[in-house]
Amino acid sequence: xxxxxxxxxxxxxxxxxxxxxxxxxxxxxxxxxxxxxxxxxxxxxxxxxxxxxxxxxxxxxxxxxxxxxxxxxxxxxxxxxxxxxxxxxxxxxxxxxxxxxxxxxxxxxxxxxxxxxxxxxxxxxxxxxxxxxxxxxxxxxxxxxxxxxxxxxxxxxxxxxxxxxxxxxxxxxxxxxxxxxxxxxxxxxxxxxxxxxxxxxxxxxxxxxxxxxxxxxxxxxxxxxxxxxxxxxxxxxxxxxxxxxxxxxxxxxxxxxxxxxxxxxxxxxxxxxxxxxxxxxxxxxxxxxxxxxxxxxxxxx
Length: 301
Known about the structure:
Layout: H1 9-12, H2 17-34, H3 36-46, H4 59-70, H5 72-75, H6 79-104, H7 114-147, H8 156-167, H9 176-203, H10 210-238, H11 246-257, H12 266-300
Helix pairs in contact: 2-6, 2-12, 3-4, 3-12, 6-7, 7-9, 9-10, 10-11, 10-12
């Protein structure tokens, strides 16, 4: 099994950039599609409530309520945008992480300290936010928000055209600051925690099985959620159908719910990140294990 981003530099160098990119995209797509209902519920809770229509905090109640009132299709509103974004985001994230960490590694041993591991994750999160995450998250959030209010957007492409017509190219980057802060923090904590756990297990010769990879990814997801939830809440408010600056989004959250409102939607996000972390890293490692021999064979042919 290939060890993604472990402290062992020689191990990670066995994965060529093309494999990192493709395996990351596969893992991101699978993870986004399989955990989307939790993402939908979390986004609904973080958006401003309609007057007289409080939003439940239990993710299963949110999903049940939407199914009853709006139908099955409403649960997957914005899903295609998130899946496309995840294909690009995680492909870029794993590729940039593997590339950046080589620059941060010890030139003699090829290893990374926990601090440098997290710094490499932070840098790759910023790259992913600029290239893929912010515009796709903006579209996803606008679609979910619009579906419960004005219902102006007929589809993801129509949403893109409308936002572009009304706000220009920069309209697709509404919430850029909050999204980038979230991505930098999330990738730093997720990659850092996962790699620290793997290094700990390698030192103690704990076998790296599918179950171990899933458990490590799940723990990394929990740590990431609590550490970056305020950025995620601000980002969601900024990227609503109407849009708002980062400062306006922050003020509206404090006005509505106080400081604790910054962690609104944590339960929903945890429901997703516990599974998504496990799915993401497990699928990535399995994809690398399959793709590495194929690319090596193609290169030698």
